[in-house]
Specification:
Layout lengths: L1 H7 L27 H41 L5 H20 L4 E5 L10 E4 L5 H7 L5 E5 L3 H12 L5 E3 L4 H15 L7 E3 L10 E2 L13 E8 L15 H9 L5 E6 L11 H16 L2 E2 L13 H23 L1
Parallel strand pairs: 1-8, 2-5, 2-7, 3-4, 3-5, 6-9
Antiparallel strand pairs: 7-8
């Protein structure tokens, strides 16, 4: 069982292997020197990325964050009104589009008529924190996610001041998780509120596959608007390996990449069928996202990178394996 997990799952928690070198990292780290020509090209690329692109991107980042903190503070002082909602929309779109410039993002959106609307839930596969910028540059969302410290925490607190109903929680606090479900139900029942953006995998996967969707966001009602996000790793690997790199280290790597190139497909809205369980609905949505994004559809829980295989999953696989053996024996006797 552990061998199956290691082969089919754990490789999804490390950077995707590139078929060719992109002047950022070696395709095979066993080769530290290939030729003088490639070494010169790498040095030239290093100079461009660290001494030209990085300073410009850092300046843009400082401007964007200053604009975010200032504008959300001012919005927080305004009373709730239609004017505040309109201003919040334009501030949000402007901030996220500027932040995308920090990574030289080039994003192509497909099926924009299927974008989420108020009272709905947009669900997408999860590769990195940049997913939020990629999606929020094209539509306004309320966010739900784990509380962070450091720079991400500063951004979360600034967003909360704008008056938008974002939901932040502690991953391992049971009481927080119960409260999140109730707040999410109340949010989707109000069509005047922004659509909620959720990444049901609950962790970052390396953009080669989609892993198990948590059923919580599919059990609260509301319309589900699936979105598939696929990055082109030739220009920079957007995957965040949080167990290996800190948030600041990851951002530095992205700012010293060539660009973030991505495609986003908005899929038609999906509805839970009569009598359909939340887990089955989640799997149906996940399959559509995987198909559209050209990703592998896996049944495993993404939290396996933080914990061992659950005993329930092991029993299920043992049961399936025993059925296969029993069937083979029956056929052999015949």
């Amino acid at each position: 069982m552990e061998a199956i997990i290691d082969d089919d799952v754990t490789k999804r928690f490390s950077a995707e292997e590139l078929p060719s070198w992109n002047l950022l990292t070696r395709t095979n780290m066993n080769y530290q020197y290939l030729s003088m020509r490639l070494t010169i090209l790498w040095v030239m690329g290093f100079m461009i990325r660290y001494f030209i692109l990085l300073p410009i991107r850092l300046a843009v980042t400082v401007f964007a964050l200053s604009y975010l903190i200032t504008s959300t503070t001012l919005l927080g002082c305004m009373p709730d009104s239609n004017l505040k909602q309109i201003l919040n929309k334009y501030v949000s779109l402007t901030v996220y589009r500027i932040l995308c410039r920090c990574f030289s993002a080039m994003i192509t959106y497909h099926g924009r008529d299927n974008r989420a609307v108020g009272g709905g839930i947009c669900v997408a596969n999860h590769t990195s924190p940049i997913d939020v910028l990629v999606l929020a540059s094209d539509n306004c969302y309320a966010f739900i996610g784990q509380s962070h410290g450091g720079l991400f925490g500063v951004i979360q607190r600034a967003l909360s001041r704008s008056g938008t109903d974002h939901i932040w929680f502690e991953r391992f606090e049971i009481q927080d998780r119960r409260g999140v479900t109730q707040r999410l139900k109340e949010h989707v029942e109000d069509a005047r509120k922004l659509p909620m953006l959720i990444f049901p995998e609950g962790t970052c996967i390396n953009n080669t596959s989609v892993m198990m969707f948590k059923k919580g966001s599919f059990d609260v009602g509301g319309v589900i608007y699936p979105a598939a996000v696929k990055y082109d790793s030739r220009f920079g690997d957007a995957f965040w390996n949080s167990s290996r790199f800190s948030g600041m280290h990851y951002l530095l790597m992205m700012m010293t990449s060539w660009a973030v190139v991505a495609d986003v497909w908005y899929l038609p809205p999906m509805y839970r069928q009569d009598g359909e369980e939340a887990a089955a609905f989640a799997n149906r949505v996940k399959a559509e996202i995987a198909k559209k994004g050209g990703l592998v559809d896996l049944v495993w829980d993404g939290q396996l990178k933080r914990a061992r295989v659950k005993s329930e999953l092991m029993r299920e696989e043992q049961l399936e394996y025993s059925k296969i053996i029993a069937s083979a024996k029956a056929n052999h006797k015949d």
